[in-house]
UniProtKB/TrEMBL annotation:
Protein's recorded name: Ig-like domain-containing protein
Keywords: Hydrolase, Manganese, Metal-binding
Alphabetical list of InterPro entries matching this protein: Aminopep_P_N, Creatin/AminoP/Spt16_N, Creatinase/aminopeptidase-like, Ig-like_dom, Pept_M24, Pept_M24_MAP, X-Pro_dipept-like
Organism encoding this protein: Littorina saxatilis
Biological process, per Gene Ontology: proteolysis
Length: 481
């Protein structure tokens, strides 16, 4: 045995810490070349190229426009009370374009007619300056050097150089297109300070909001994003099964919430994507019930609307199940009616239809199902049936899903679905406890069934197919408790 090895400790090369996980420091999360698990530097560059191409195309007819400058602030750290921050979540547009996870940063993208088409822009990232004292308390920062190495932008600088950079740009250029989200500015101080000044100087030709462009890009997922969407939905699906098995008469809604949070995190998710709805019995009829502070009585259904966030990508599922493991006859009738509608809606998620098309079909089908149960009068006129269906399901059939739960809200729901889009399909029926127009056995029952669907050229792919939704599958899982 070589005793000298025991005496002289093995010196490993110094590890450089960044302000976020990196392949060097978190090999269990990232491969070399990835900025975000599964998303490479090259993909981020491709996204910026596509954005710039779309921006330039919109003003192709304006010959005097030589330059475009696109400015994307990151999210800020927000405090709930002195020194106590809320959990930080990065701004989705900023994250989509560079993958940088630190607060109080700004991405500036410059494009000039003279740049080549293969590298049509220069991306500069302005980030918090290295500060040993602050890092002692808050953890490592990447600094300009680290940000450059980590993200692969063209240059990185300290945040305090941003103002000078932008005023220099304005001196050197005029009649440029200024792209910036002035409707929902992510950083108040930057908006009222540097940006207001830049807009006020009027060196630009026009100020355009970035939102529509960004949502247009983000609504269609790349193969790497499809993989992350598949994973985030799979994690939530598995977690739902565990929550079902954990539920029993007398369980607290808050315990089901905690169980969901736990089962998502142990599968790799960072956190739940939104405050979940965990509603026992008639509380399901409050669509955004998030108090989750009641006890679920024997014989009640549980409606849980929950999803998680995995490396910036969200899932959004809803299941409704009997807390004691067996649907009552009335619950079963209403559940089967909702499920029949939901299945047809899922099958309609093709490039032939828009979300609004699916919604109209949902109302018609729900009307028919509820007429069969006598919940809507059988002699009601066609327009009365639709009106009543809209009362019993006051929300849309679904929305786009991605980095944000209600993703790409600037993309209309009346455009045809396209391959690479991910949407939710979530019909529901909510019979209020005091609705005396409906047979007593149905009153107080609220049901929603929500899947996450990937649109393809052919048939839709149900990303949440492993989350049980038939009466038989749910009752079988509940019997395995
Ligand atoms: Mn939803």
């Amino acid at each position: 045995m070589d005793r000298s090895r025991l005496l002289s400790p093995v010196v490993s090369p110094p590890v450089r810490w960044f302000g976020q996980p990196a392949a060097q420091t978190h090999p269990h999360l990232l491969n070399t070349g990835e900025v975000t698990p599964n998303i490479t530097k090259e993909e981020y560059r491709r996204r910026r190229c596509m954005l710039v191409k779309d921006a330039r195309n919109m003003f192709a007819g304006f010959r005097e426009v030589e330059d475009h400058i696109l400015i994307f602030p990151s999210a800020r750290r927000v405090f709930m009370t002195n020194d106590i921050p809320y959990p930080f979540r990065q701004n989705s547009d900023f994250l989509y374009l560079c993958g940088f996870q630190e607060a109080d940063s700004v991405l500036v993208i410059h494009s000039s007619k003279s740049f080549s088409s293969s590298h049509n822009h220069r991306a500069a990232l302005f980030v918090p300056k290295k500060d040993p004292y602050k890092e002692l308390w808050e953890g490592s920062r990447s600094g300009a050097e680290g940000a450059l190495e980590l993200t692969g932008v063209d240059s990185a600088h300290n945040y305090n150089e941003l103002e000078q950079f932008l005023s220099g740009f304005c001196k050197d250029h005029s009649k440029f297109m200024l792209w910036y989200d002035f409707v929902n500015p992510p950083q108040d101080g930057f908006h009222t300070g540097v940006m207001s000044q830049m807009i006020g100087e009027e060196r630009h030709k026009a100020v355009e909001n970035t939102q529509k462009l960004m949502h247009g890009l983000r609504v269609k997922k790349s193969p790497a994003e499809v993989e992350l969407m598949t994973q985030t939905v799979q994690i939530a699906s598995e977690a739902f099964v565990e929550v079902m098995k954990f539920s029993r008469p007398g369980v607290h809604e808050s315990h089901l919430w905690a169980k969901m949070d736990f089962e998502c995190r142990v599968r790799g998710a960072q956190y739940l994507a939104y405050p979940p709805v965990v509603a026992g019995g008639p509380r399901a009829n409050t669509i955004h019930y998030t108090a989750n502070n009641q006890v679920v009585a024997d014989g009640d259904l549980v409606l849980m609307d929950a999803g998680c966030e995995l490396h910036g990508y969200t899932s959004d599922l809803t299941r409704t199940w009997p807390v004691n493991g067996k649907f009552s006859p009335a619950q079963r009738e209403l559940y089967q009616a909702t499920l029949a509608v939901q299945k047809v809606c899922v099958s309609m998620c093709t490039t032939q239809h828009s979300l609004d098309d699916v919604y109209r079909q949902m109302l018609a089908l729900l009307g028919m199902q509820l007429q069969e149960l006598g919940i809507i009068p059988r002699d009601a006129s066609a327009s009365e049936v639709i009106k009543k269906a809209r009362q019993l399901c006051p929300h849309h059939v679904g929305h786009y899903l991605g980095m944000d739960v209600h993703d790409s809200s600037e993309v209309s729901r009346n455009v045809k679905l396209e391959p690479g889009m991910v949407i939710t399909v979530e019909p529901g029926v909510y019979v209020q406890s005091d609705d005396t127009t409906v047979a007593e056995k149905y009153r107080g029952i609220g049901i929603r069934i929500e899947d996450n669907i990937l649109i393809t050229k052919a048939t839709p792919i149900n990303l949440s197919q492993n989350c049980p939704k038939t009466v038989e599958d749910i009752e079988r899982i509940m019997s395995e408790r």
